[in-house]
């Protein structure tokens, strides 16, 4: 049996999310979110993306590098969509804790940056990835990838919720104008983990160099503060205060 070569990181995705908290639950949920796919030096060739402009969307194949490493795989997991109580088979979910920690995202190709030291760079919309996520492969998305009669298993019983966002103008003014639409979209989709439903808790969303603090009830996300993001070196952001 021929020994398989190890996978190589071909690129890294750069986004406004320094941690997993607040990252959309699936790609395309917040189309205003822009990300840059920067190729590693060995793969930084214009020839490697020749013709890619002809496709409106791409598949990104990537690694769950922020998942707990070294843990044994389990045949069942607790999907957050089910409140973290019910167990389902790992291959019936999109859990990051898999035998091979590989993820798949469908993103919109916004542009290809062909100038600069890092060129070519792919600018994509709707990515659901943490800053620095390793990319293992990129493939064109084509209309044949769509299955109109597809069913969604347990996910169809838990549709995505949209919340009203109350964002005081003086606080919104602290957010760069080109990031406001994306931030509002992230907040409207409730960035909390499913098990965190305490309306009295103040959450902190690290986004685009800012710490966006908010509360949330049954209908409304209320932003209470926006401040520069200044975590201690090496500190993790738990997503709440």
TrEMBL record:
Alphabetical GO biological process terms: methylation
Q: Which InterPro entries does UniProt cross-reference here?
A: TrmO-like_N, UPF0066_cons_site, YaeB-like, YaeB-like_sf, YaeB_N_sf
Q: Which UniProt keywords apply?
A: Methyltransferase, S-adenosyl-L-methionine, Transferase
Q: Which Pfam families match?
A: TrmO_N (PF01980)
Residue ranges of domain TsaA-like in the record: 7-150
One GO term in the molecular function aspect is: methyltransferase activity
Record-linked PROSITE patterns: TSAA_1 (PS01318), TSAA_2 (PS51668)
Q: What family name appears in the similarity comment? A: Belongs to the tRNA methyltransferase O family.
The name of this protein is tRNA-Thr(GGU) m(6)t(6)A37 methyltransferase TsaA
Q: Which organism is it from?
A: Luteococcus japonicus
- List the taxonomic lineage: Bacteria, Bacillati, Actinomycetota, Actinomycetes, Propionibacteriales
């Amino acid at each position: 049996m021929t020994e398989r070569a190890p996978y190589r990181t071909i690129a890294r995705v750069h986004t406004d999310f320094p941690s997993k908290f607040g990252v959309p639950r699936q790609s395309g949920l917040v189309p205003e979110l822009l990300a840059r796919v920067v190729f590693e030096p060995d793969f930084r060739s214009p020839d490697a993306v020749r013709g890619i402009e002809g496709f409106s969307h791409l598949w990104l194949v990537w690694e769950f590098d922020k998942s707990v490493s070294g843990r044994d795989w389990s045949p069942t997991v607790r999907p957050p969509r089910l409140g973290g109580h019910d167990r389902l088979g790992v291959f019936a979910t999109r859990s990051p804790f898999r035998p091979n920690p590989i993820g798949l995202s469908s993103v919109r190709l916004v542009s290809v940056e062909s100038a600069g030291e890092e060129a070519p760079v792919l600018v994509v919309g709707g990515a659901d990835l943490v800053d620095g996520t390793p990319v293992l492969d990129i493939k064109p998305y084509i209309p044949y990838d769509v299955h109109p009669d597809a069913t969604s298993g347990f996910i169809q019983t838990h549709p995505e919720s949209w919340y009203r966002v109350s964002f005081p103008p003086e606080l919104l003014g602290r957010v760069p104008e080109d990031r406001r639409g994306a931030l509002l979209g992230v907040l409207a989709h409730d960035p909390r983990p499913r098990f965190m439903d305490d309306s009295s808790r103040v959450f902190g969303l690290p986004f685009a160099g800012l710490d966006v603090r908010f509360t949330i009830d049954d209908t409304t996300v209320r932003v209470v503060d926006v401040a520069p993001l200044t975590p201690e070196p090496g500190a993790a952001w738990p997503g709440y205060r």
